[in-house]
Amino acid sequence: MNTLSILLGMVGPWQIGLIVLVVLLLFGGKKIPEMMRGLGGGIKEFKKASKDEDDDLIEEKK
């Protein structure tokens, strides 16, 4: 088993609720959507860069 599945198995619904409550208190309701948009944009950019890298490697092999 990998470490992530072990950690996720130890986190219950009460712990997730507590984490959500703490994040909401720290950042506020208006800041969270902005943070998620930034996170989504970062993930999209990372996927695009890794796809471009794969395309470059395929072209080099030809």
Question: Keywords, please?
Answer:
62 residues, mainly alpha, translocation, transport
What does this molecule look like?
The structure is a single chain. With 62 residues, the protein is mainly α. It has one domain (3-61). Helices cover 87% and strands 0% of the residues. The protein has helices at residues 3-10, 13-27, 31-61. The mean pLDDT is 81.
In what range is the share of β-strand residues?
Answer: under 5%
Unreliable runs: none
Rg value? 18 Å
Structural class: mainly alpha
What composes the largest sheet?
A: none
| Secondary structure tally: strands | 0
Total discrete domains: 1
Proportion in helices: over 70%
Q: Whole-number average pLDDT? A: 81
The total count of helices amounts to: 3
Shape: flat
CA distance, first residue to last residue: 38 Å
Order of helices and strands: HHH
Briefly characterize the structure.
The chain has helices spanning about 5-10, 15-25, 30-60. It is mainly alpha-helical. It has one domain.
